[in-house]
Amino acid sequence: MRHSPTHQGCQAFRFAAWKWCINTAEVLIDADGEAAATFYEQSGITTLDQFLPLEPAEPGFMRLIEIGIDHDYAMTQTDLGKPIIVAPVAPETGDNGVIVIDGWHRVYRARKEGREHLPVYLLTPYAEKASRIPIFA
């Protein structure tokens, strides 16, 4: 599947040296099912608290990484039944962990409401690569 190189009108997520087209990931999940992602009905999200502004940073400390969240949008416009999308980071170079590429507002709302799990799609390396947008071309 080839996606428009401009990604105009696409929702994208960028973290450090990587960027993903959420629209492409969603199309692949819908079209290719298990070839594109593994679905987990309930996946733990409490480890993501460190990246969210759930509480102000302690005096004298700062977060090195903090995902920007629109609180009002998160608390009123998100559907906690919609799975978040997680991608392996640079899977071609080994096991570098995973990152949420779609659903940070849902994670924020879930954690503010005291939830510890959300449904998740974990992209396969094939779908991650197809969804990745080159930023240093």
Please outline what is shown here:
The chain has 137 residues and is α+β, with helices and mostly antiparallel strands. It is 25% helix and 24% strand.
Rg measurement, Å:
15 Å
Any idea how many domains? 1
Biggest sheet overview: 4 strands, mixed
- Percent strand equals 15-25%
Count, helices: 4
Terminus-to-terminus distance: 20 Å
Give me the strand/helix succession. EEHEHEEHEH
Features:
137 residues; alpha+beta; 4-stranded mixed β-sheet
Description:
By secondary structure, the chain is an alpha+beta fold. The protein has one domain. The protein has 4 helices and 6 strands. It has helices spanning 22-32, 71-77, 104-112, 125-131; strands spanning 12-15, 18-21, 37-44, 84-88, 98-102, 117-123. The strands form 2 sheets. It has a 4-stranded mixed beta sheet with strand order 3-6-4-5. It has a two-stranded antiparallel ribbon with strand order 1-2. Strand 1 and strand 2 form a beta hairpin. The longest helix is centred in the first third of the chain and has 11 residues, at 22-32. It starts with 11 loop residues before the first strand and ends in a 6-residue tail after the last helix. The mean pLDDT is 87.
Strand and helix layout:
Blueprint: E1 12-15, E2 18-21, H1 22-32, E3 37-44, H2 71-77, E4 84-88, E5 98-102, H3 104-112, E6 117-123, H4 125-131
